[in-house]
Amino acid sequence: MLREVENGFHKILRLRKEEGSEISITCFYEELRVIGFGEIVPLHSAEIKGYSCYGIHANHMDMTKFPNREDRGYDAILGELQRWKGSAHRARDNKSHSAVHDVKHCREKTSMEMGVKLGDDKGLTPRTMVEQGSNQFGDIRAWNRQVNQGDFYNTGFSPQATVSPETTGQYSYNTFYALDGYKRVPSTYYASNAIQQLHATDTDHKMAKLWMVPRTASRLYTGREELGERLAQVLSFNPSTPSTQQRIFTITGVGGTGKSEVCLKFAEDHRDEYWGVFWLNAGSIATAEQGYMDLGRRCGVAEPSLENVKSWLACTSQRWLLIIDNADDPEIDYSEYIPSGKRGDILLTTRNPECCIYNTAGSEPLGDLEPKLARKLLLRASSIIESRWKEKEKAAMAVVNILGSHTLAIIQAGAFVRQKLCTLEEYPTIFQQQRGQLLKFYSKQKPSVYDNVYTTFEVSAEYLQKSRLPESLDALNLLHTLAFMHNNGISEKIFQRASEYASELKDSGINNDEEVLALSMHHITRLPSYAQQEWSSLQDLLRWRKACSVLESLSIITPGNDDSAAISVHPLVHIWAKERQDHQSRYRAWQSAATILALSCQGWYSYHPFFSFLQPHVRACVSHNINEYTQHMSDMEAAQILFQLAYVLDIMRDESSLTFLVQCIRLRLQDGFGAKEETTLQIKDFTGRVYLQQGKFQEVVDIFKEVAEGRSRMMAEDHPSRLASQHALAGAYEANGQVDEAVTLLEHVVKVQEKLAEDHPSRLASQHALAGAYRANGQVDEAVTLLEHVVKVQEKLAEDHPSRLASQHALAGAYEANGQVDEAVTLLEHVVKVQEKLAEDHPSRLASQHALASAYEANGQVDEAVTLLEHVVKVEEKLAEDHPSRLASQHALASAYEANGQGDEAVTLLEHVVKVEEKLAEDHPSRLASQHALAGAYEANGQVDEAVTLLEHVVKVQEKLAEDHPSRLASQHALAGAYRANGQVDEAVTLLEHVVKVQEKLAEDHPSRLASQHALAGAYEANGQVDEAVTLLEHVVKVRGKLAEDHPSRLASQHALASAYEANGQVDEAVTLLEHVVKVQEKLAEDHPSRLASQHALAGAYRANGQVDEAVTLLEHVVEVQKQLAEENPARLASQHALAGAYRANGQVDEAVTLLEHVVKVEEKLAEDHPSRLAPQHALAGAYEANGQVDEAVTLLEHVVKVQEKLAEDHPSRLASQHALASAYEANGQVDEAVTLLEHVVKVQEKAS
């Protein structure tokens, strides 16, 4: 029977076609199997050849049930029904009595032809529906009533096959026929709901009448609100001002960023504004043309060809939206798929930025989601309940970061977590280990069109592989090469430099097969073809740029925003570009990338700005499996490449990457592997340079000794390489604290080089180095003399010659060490001025600014020092957080902050530096130096306990250094100072006596030896050993008498000796010496800190000498000058404190109280137990007592004594406060309390003695 029905129906179709009134049919078929039965009606049975056929994502039983209105099957059927309704209304308007008669006649005739009588059984669910003008009830209204009443069965509807209306002559026919199958349908969510919605009132135009959209927007749709608002604005419809042109908006971006989702969301949100919404898959010519044919059939176009449908859209008066999706193929002219005229709105999505030329209403490059929105999307995709989002924020951030905020990748990651394959916290680790597999993962429920990220990107690669254009092959090779560079800042200059040097190498005819420091002809063969020719030819340059253009057209790369010709690759595209390659391809691509980088830096062995571009790419290249990728290269060829890359990392101070690379080189070329001795020495020499950066000074000395001894055996005494090795060894000696050995060896080198011309660069370099050793050895005069000679000789060089500027820089440092600070500042200002033509971030320019800031600080120009160092630190923010130069500048800025009274800022900055340096070895000199500096900042900030603890740690770590190592002695010196500040005066004296003892082997006038003696004298004075302090300081002053009269160190010692004289009761001597110091310092600026400090001290001596008026006058001058300092500056507050003491001694008690109350008020922001805060409170209590405010004095001193209970029982400051409180008690009539407290003080002091 069914066969007869089928044959009869096909006969009708054939007859109607022959009559010229062809029936248009849309078929629907089941996509899923019925469990236990399988496929009921196969596709070949459901479809009719030559007619459109759509799948319903359900089995045979559930084809008429839809979960919600967003289901794509529901949308497809509703679109057909909407079209019928439009035809039915037109038929109703035109019908007449004769038309109805003809309709009935036609129905009866057709029924007879098919041999099937239509039944009225409400249990029937017909499988095919033919729509031809009217219906079996004879009146469309009756059919509408049936539908609206829910009588779905009697309408004869089923979504198995739908036949659309045709107009034949004067009449329209709508007749429905049951063809096969009988089945009752459960009442869950029937297709009749769609029909009921369709046949609402005639004024209901809230939904698009034609809806040809493949799916709904994802339920996870997140963000893109601004783009959505922009689309709504530019595509908005205003009947009063009709559009003068067709509105086309293009959305560009790499695959998987959500271009299609944006269009789906816009279509859904604005569906009510359009008569029809159409979706066109433009991924290929075939899909685009098929899409237009389907569109034409849905719209009733007689001959639905591409041109006919475009013409129909151009002519229709209805408002429509056409979404042209996946317009990615650079070889397709997509203008052919854009209807002409002014009608309609078009959204076009593409990976090809060139398609932006089609836009008439705007375009938008769709990038990655903002991090905040990306995290939100990830958490939603992971099905993590919103109440837990806050606790998962950090883990989500880590996942988003490694995925580059790529939309589809985030959704995939969320699905991976949602399926409990890992936790959010575990995902980054798993991704690093299994990147390829995770990029290919996708959820089986509502997957993306491309399923996963890998497939999304692979679409572009497949295009390149299929294309026959030469630039496509170049583009694919370039893509594979880029996978082994950093994904950002890939400069054309890198490839251009590599090509140019390769050409030079070929022209030279030198093979360099045995020279590890050079590249050979073998490396040129590793280059991709577009880089093997010299780029002086425009054609070759264009070949590279064409390859880039192809990749850009597929959104695989993104051009930079400037004229640097730099490109970037999305992080996930970058990962995919490597993962898609097989082993052989990876070998070739890595070797190409490494060779390009090595050739591009060939010939540069000192800093060049180009290295800033190169460094991230070298680091990325060497982070891969070098041993695996070089296994098909000879040891020498591999080592030659690695050496060039290592030089870049060495110059850029990239220690972490460099260490691994040096290990690889040493494994490939070392003794026992057939390498020449000189090659082995070159490897060791370079290894020593790396270790020098890492602070492994003893290892460096051992390595450089081997190199120097090896070259001494092989080479003449004056051979440049032999002398260079000795020069390097001397530098290692100096770094290791073996300064005498450094001086001796460099004096030898300088002596040997006397036969060279006076201006020979090597001779001058050795003299420069010897001057540095002299300075480190305390022979500052010799250093100055030698550097002045070098600078004089180099005057014939250009003013901006790097060597000349470096020598001037060094001479300025020697001037500063020699107390010639003005000369240092002048010379460094000159150097900085000359270097202004260098790039702002050039290391030499920044180093000179750093040095000038140090000279400013030494010269009392602390504000200038802070300003300049803040600039340096700001510029260096582009360096890695742990870059040595960046940390050194932060270290110096902290020192300037401390000198400027910004103790909190100094501590904060140094704590950051110390934190960053935790990755260094515990005994790394830079790490210990920063801890040393932080301890100093703690001490200056009143955090004395922290200072002691940190310095004890530093001293402990440095026990492995030689006893007389300068760094070890300097830390012990500093720890003694912290002990003294903490009241541990005995420990300070003991430690400084040890330091002074060890330094007896130094020259009598060595600055470090004298500085330690100076410090020991201060500890003696604090410990009550005033005679010893005076004797030691008189010795220091005597030795320093050979320094210039205004040398800061000489004046500082005289200052200290005057203090000891005053403590020893030799007040006249103190006054005389300080007056001399103040007189000498008159040449300093009025506000120079050292000058003001000396005037402050002289006022104290005046007061001790009974010259109170002179003390008041001098301190009032100091306080006036210091008004330019910040209110809370420690030096300013100290002077006000001292002036208040002078006022009190002068009987001006009210003024003393007022000034001290101000000081105490300002210092309230300090910690409660800060020594500088407690001292003014102590003094204010004394002023209160002198002013008769005894109750206030007692209250304040009781507070001070209470706060100081955390100090050691015998701490001098604690005992002094208790003593003062006892005095206040006595003045207040609390004699018993006074006696008790003083007995306690005496007892503690007896125990201490």
UniProtKB/TrEMBL annotation:
Alphabetized SMART domains for the sequence: TPR (SM00028)
Coiled coil residues, start to end: none
Keywords: Repeat, TPR repeat
SUPFAM superfamilies noted in UniProt: P-loop containing nucleoside triphosphate hydrolases, TPR-like
Annotated InterPro entries: P-loop_NTPase, TPR-like_helical_dom_sf, TPR_rpt
Protein name in UniProt: TPR-like protein
